[in-house]
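R.M. (postdoc): so does anyone remember the format we settled on? I'll just put the C-alpha cells first.
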C-alpha cells in the first residue's frame, strides 16, 4: 500500500440508469470501490442516494440511481477512474473532485434550518404592519461573506 500522507481526499458522484436492477447497482458500486483499493487508495464513505428524477433527460433516461463516494487516492489515479467511468456503458453522468477541508462529510448530511413559527403557525414578521421592520431570516448559503458581487459595477455612474 502507498504511503497514506501522499494520498489526497476526493469525492465522486456517479449516476446509473434509473431502470437498473438493484443488484446491478450494488455490483457496480463494489467494482468502483475495489478499483480504488486495487490502486492503493481507500474508500472512506459510500452512500447510495437512491433513484431520483434527473434535472433533464439524458438519452432516454428520466431517472437515475445516484451514488456518492469519498476516497483517498494518488492524484494520478483520478484520470484512470475518470476513464473507467467514461468507457462504462452503465454510467450516464459522473463527476470527480478534490474534497474540501472543513466541509461536512456528505452533502446529504447538510440539513437546512427549520423555519421558526409563532404559536399561530405564522412565521415571525411574515404578516401585519410590522413586517417591514422585522428582517427576514438569512440562509446560510446567502451569508454576506459568500455572496458574489460580480454583477455590480463599482465604477459605473448613476
Amino acid at each position: 500500500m502507498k504511503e497514506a500522507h501522499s494520498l489526497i481526499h476526493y469525492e465522486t458522484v456517479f449516476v446509473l440508469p434509473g431502470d437498473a436492477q438493484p443488484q446491478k447497482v450494488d455490483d457496480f458500486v463494489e467494482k468502483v470501490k475495489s478499483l480504488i483499493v486495487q490502486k492503493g487508495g481507500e474508500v472512506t464513505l459510500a452512500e447510495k442516494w437512491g433513484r431520483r428524477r434527473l434535472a433533464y433527460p439524458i438519452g432516454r433516461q428520466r431517472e437515475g440511481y445516484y451514488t456518492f463516494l469519498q476516497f483517498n487516492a494518488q492524484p494520478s489515479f483520478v484520470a484512470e477512474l475518470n476513464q473507467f467511468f467514461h468507457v462504462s456503458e452503465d454510467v450516464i453522468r459522473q463527476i470527480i473532485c478534490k474534497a474540501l477541508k472543513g466541509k461536512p462529510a456528505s452533502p446529504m448530511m447538510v440539513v437546512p434550518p427549520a423555519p421558526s413559527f409563532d404559536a399561530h403557525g405564522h412565521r415571525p414578521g411574515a404578516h401585519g404592519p410590522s413586517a417591514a421592520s422585522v428582517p427576514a431570516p438569512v440562509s446560510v448559503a446567502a451569508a454576506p461573506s459568500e455572496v458574489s458581487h460580480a454583477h455590480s459595477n463599482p465604477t459605473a455612474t448613476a
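R.M.: ...and that's the designed sequence above, right after the C-alpha cells. Also worth knowing: The first helix runs from residue 22 to 38. Confidence is low (pLDDT under 50) at residues 138-158.
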